[in-house]
């Protein structure tokens, strides 16, 4: 199976977690786009979806899947999203697409987080993929200096603005022996809105697809 086929297999395997009549939290990215395409096939069974980005909202609407405001629901039964890296502990690095803050909000508001990945994303330890941090623009230099003190190399994502009007700093070459501790440390830096480590609230289910199809971790 190609990587695209593996992404599709993971995306389609997530359908069985969707309850009839429910509202589904939907992440962002190429794997999630395949999930949205699959969800379109059962759209008559769901009430709607909460989107984690403008791109996802547009794709949901293009399939006539009703988009619901997170503030109009008491909570969500399920959140489906991809990841840039994942461990067997279901700790994740996310935010390659820059939607990390809204993704973390929708994940937090959901009872169950099902993460869908192809096998290239499964790693022993997080840190190969740079950790994205969403930052208030005026804090760019300050946050960069704090990242250097932590041992990382801050790189501004050039020309990129998040859906919230902020910048992204990608942290390269930062060892991550304790993802939960680092997630908290990064969040404690003034000017940081959110970071791409999803460890304090990991995925509940990891659907990994390889050439044999999707399996659950
Ligand atoms: C976007 C994300 C995505 O889930 C992550 O980047 C994976 O994307 P893809 O499925 O395209 O590989 O966190 O902010």
Automatic annotation (TrEMBL):
<feature type="active site" description="Proton acceptor">
    <location>
        <position position="103"/>
    </location>
</feature>
<protein>
    <recommendedName>
        <fullName>Ribose-5-phosphate isomerase A</fullName>
        <ecNumber>5.3.1.6</ecNumber>
    </recommendedName>
</protein>
<feature type="binding site">
    <location>
        <position position="121"/>
    </location>
    <ligand>
        <name>substrate</name>
    </ligand>
</feature>
<feature type="binding site">
    <location>
        <begin position="81"/>
        <end position="84"/>
    </location>
    <ligand>
        <name>substrate</name>
    </ligand>
</feature>
<dbReference type="Pfam" id="PF06026">
    <property type="entry name" value="Rib_5-P_isom_A"/>
</dbReference>
<feature type="binding site">
    <location>
        <begin position="28"/>
        <end position="31"/>
    </location>
    <ligand>
        <name>substrate</name>
    </ligand>
</feature>
<dbReference type="GO" id="GO:0004751">
    <property type="term" value="F:ribose-5-phosphate isomerase activity"/>
</dbReference>
<dbReference type="GO" id="GO:0009052">
    <property type="term" value="P:pentose-phosphate shunt, non-oxidative branch"/>
</dbReference>
<keyword id="KW-0413">Isomerase</keyword>
<dbReference type="InterPro" id="IPR004788">
    <property type="entry name" value="Ribose5P_isomerase_type_A"/>
</dbReference>
<comment type="function">
    <text>Catalyzes the reversible conversion of ribose-5-phosphate to ribulose 5-phosphate.</text>
</comment>
<dbReference type="GO" id="GO:0005829">
    <property type="term" value="C:cytosol"/>
</dbReference>
<feature type="binding site">
    <location>
        <begin position="94"/>
        <end position="97"/>
    </location>
    <ligand>
        <name>substrate</name>
    </ligand>
</feature>
<comment type="similarity">
    <text>Belongs to the ribose 5-phosphate isomerase family.</text>
</comment>
<dbReference type="InterPro" id="IPR020672">
    <property type="entry name" value="Ribose5P_isomerase_typA_subgr"/>
</dbReference>
<dbReference type="GO" id="GO:0006014">
    <property type="term" value="P:D-ribose metabolic process"/>
</dbReference>
<comment type="pathway">
    <text>Carbohydrate degradation; pentose phosphate pathway; D-ribose 5-phosphate from D-ribulose 5-phosphate (non-oxidative stage): step 1/1.</text>
</comment>
<comment type="subunit">
    <text>Homodimer.</text>
</comment>
<dbReference type="InterPro" id="IPR037171">
    <property type="entry name" value="NagB/RpiA_transferase-like"/>
</dbReference>
């Amino acid at each position: 199976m190609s990587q695209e086929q593996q992404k599709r297999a993971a995306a389609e395997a997530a359908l069985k977690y969707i309850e009839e009549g429910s509202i589904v939290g939907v992440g962002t990215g190429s794997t999630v786009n395949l999930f949205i395409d699959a969800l379109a096939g059962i759209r008559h069974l769901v009430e709607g979806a909460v989107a984690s980005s403008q791109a996802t909202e547009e794709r949901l609407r293009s399939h006539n899947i009703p988009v619901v405001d997170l503030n109009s629901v008491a909570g969500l039964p399920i959140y489906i999203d991809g990841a840039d890296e994942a461990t067997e502990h279901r700790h994740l690095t996310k935010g390659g697409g820059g939607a990390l803050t809204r993704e973390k909000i929708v994940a937090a508001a959901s009872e169950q987080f099902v993460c869908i990945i192809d096998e290239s994303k499964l790693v022993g330890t997080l840190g190969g993929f740079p950790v994205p941090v969403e930052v208030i623009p005026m804090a760019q230099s300050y946050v960069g200096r704090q990242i250097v003190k932590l041992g990382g190399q801050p790189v501004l994502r050039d020309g990129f603005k998040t859906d919230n009007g902020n910048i992204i700093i990608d942290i390269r070459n930062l060892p991550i022996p304790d993802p939960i501790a680092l997630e908290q440390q990064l969040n404690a830096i003034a000017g940081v809105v959110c970071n791409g480590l999803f460890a304090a609230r990991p995925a509940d289910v990891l659907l990994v697809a390889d050439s044999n199809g999707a399996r659950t971790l």
